[in-house]
Amino acid sequence: MSRDGFIAGGIFALGLAVVGGYALAQTATDAAADGPGPNLVIEVAGSTTGTIVIDLLPDVAPLHVTQITTLAAQGAYDDVVFHRVIDGFMAQTGDVQYGKGAASAQAGMGGSELPDLKAEFSDVSFDRGVVGMARSSDPDSANSQFFIMFAPAPHLDGQYTVVGRVISGMEVVDALKKGEGGNGEVTDPDRMAKVTVAE
Q1: Which residue has the higher pLDDT, 126 or 199?
Q2: Would you give the end-to-end CA distance of the chain in angstroms?
Q3: I need a labelling partner for 91 at 20 to 30 A (CA). Which of 22, 43, 49, 62 fits?
Q4: 3 state SS of 164
Q5: What three-state secondary structure class fits 106?
Q6: Going from the N-terminus, what domains does the chain have, and what CATH number goes with each?
Q7: 3-state class of 142 per DSSP?
Q8: pLDDT per residue over 135-149, tens digit each?
Q9: Which of 83, 120, 114 is nearest to 100 (CA)?
Q10: CA distance 145 to 131
Q11: How far is CA 10 from CA 13, 57, 155, in A?
Q12: What is the pLDDT of residues 67-119, one digit of tens each?
């Protein structure tokens, strides 16, 4: 099942229009922010290097956070590319099936061997630095892929599961190699060289 088009055509087009107005004015995520969850630590390699730290939110999306931390502990996210990066909108990664090496040309089409998850929608807004789970048109199809917001996208609120927020390294997110065209597919993308969980 394809997860690449995690936002249907009409909503996606609206998102680009809405986000465009926020992109220049939005401030960075507060690096001092913290929550109850474990941290996902992502070492980025490629044209951009650095570390992104995501505070996961098990109180908001316990099933999704458990799935992410399980995959990270297995090393499944290591060397997975940021296959879809749309400037002013979001950066998507996490395809543990097709997001590595020679298979990365198909990145965005797969997931893990773990089951898809029932949506855990919340009242947490998709602001800059917020991390959400990618899915197909089926709300209960999120698996391993996630995306990080460059700018607020209120039209996603209550439509996608929020799993965390960037608390450090938003400048690394901003520097990720951007894709081309409406779908944001990236040629020679940056990758998550190593992903670990810190309690």
Answers
A1: 126
A2: 33
A3: 62
A4: strand
A5: helix
A6: 9-198 (2.40.100.10)
A7: strand
A8: 999 999 999 999 999
A9: 83
A10: 10
A11: 5, 29, 11
A12: 999 999 999 999 999 999 999 999 999 999 999 987 778 899 999 999 999 99
